Amino acid sequence: MIVMEFLSEFGLFLAKSLTVLLVALVLVTAIVNALRSARQQDQLPARLEVRHLNDEYRQASMTMKAAMLPVKALKSEKKALKAARKRHGDGDKPRLFVLDFQGDIRASATESLREEITAILTVANDNDEVLLRLESGGGMIPTYGLAAAQLVRLRERGLRLTVAVDRVAASGGYMMACIADRILVAPFAILGSIGVIAQLPNFNRMLKKHDIDFEQFMAGEHKRTVTLFGENTDQGRQKFQQEIEQAHGLFKDFVARYRPQLDLDEVATGEYWYGTQALTRKLADQVLTSDEYLLETSAKAELYQVSKRTRKPLLGRLLSGTGDALSRTLNTNVLRL
Length: 337
What we know:
- With 337 residues, the chain is an alpha/beta fold.
- The chain has a domain at 93-199 and 264-330: Alpha-Beta Complex (2-enoyl-CoA Hydratase, Chain A, domain 1).
- Helix content is 52%, strand content 14%.
- It has helices at 2-42, 53-68, 71-87, 110-121, 141-156, 172-177, 204-209, 234-258, 264-267, 275-280, 290-297, 314-330, and strands at 48-52, 95-102, 129-135, 160-165, 168-170, 182-185, 190-192, 272-274, 286-287, 302-308.
- It has a 7-stranded mixed β-sheet with strand order 1-10-2-3-4-6-9, with helices on both faces. A 3-stranded mixed β-sheet has the order 5-7-8.
- Helix 4 packs parallel to helix 5.
- The mean pLDDT is 85.
C-alpha cells in the first residue's frame, strides 16, 4: 500500500515536472524563433517608399460616394476617376513631395531625412515643392544643426520649401522650420523657444561626505569647464555661461538669415508661443494644418509622400528608450537647443 502511494505520488510529481519542462521548452523555442526572425528583418536593407497621395484621396472620395450616390451617378464618377488616372503622369502638373520629421533629443530621424532629400533632388525641377511635416521639441545642437543643413540643400537647389507644424517646432525644431519659404502652423501648435539650455547635478559634496576622491586630468585650460563629480569653480561656471551665450548668438544669427522679418529682441528670449500668437510675431506665415494644405494642393499638383524607414537592430529598439533617458541624465551639461 505504501509502495503504491509512493509510486502514485512519484508519478504525479514526474508529470508535473515534465509539464513544467515542456512549457519552458516551448517558451524558449518561441523566444529563439522571435529573436531569429527579428535578426533576419534587421538585416533587410531600408527601402525608399513613395506613396501617391492623390490616388488615396480619390479612393477615399469614391468610398464615400459609393455609400451616398445612386448607381448611375456612381458609374459616372468612376468614369471620371478613370480618366483622371489616365492623365496622371503626363508631367503637366507640378509635384509636391511630402516628408515627415519626428524629432527626438538626438534628431535621430536626420539620417532618413538626408536620404529622402537626396532622392527628391534626383528628380525634382523648379516647379516642384517640398512639404515637411515637422514635429520636434529640440535637442542637441550638432544633430539639429545637421538636420537643418539638409533642408538648406533644398533651398540652395531653388526648390520651394514649406514646413507645416501641427504640434510643436521649438528650439532645434524651429531652427529647422525657419529655413522654409513658408511656415504653416496649427492654431495651438507651439513655436519658438529660440534659446540654449544646459543643466547638470553636482555630486562633489556627497563624494566628500563619504570620503570618496574624484580625480580629473586635463590638457587645456578649458577642456572641461563644469563637471558632475568634481568641484566646480566660478571661473568654470563663467566660461560655461560664455559658451551658452555664444551658442545662442549663433542660433539667432541662423534664424535671422532665413527669417529676417523677425524681431529677435522679442522672440529670441527662449519663450514659445501658440499658433495664432506665433503668427502675430511673424514666427509663422499662415494658420493652417498640414491636412488642409495637402487637400487643397491635391487639386492642382501631384502629391508624393517620400519616406525611408531605417530599422534599428533589435537590441537598439529594446534600449532606445533607455538610451534617451541616459542621454538626458549623463549628458546634461551638453548644450541643447
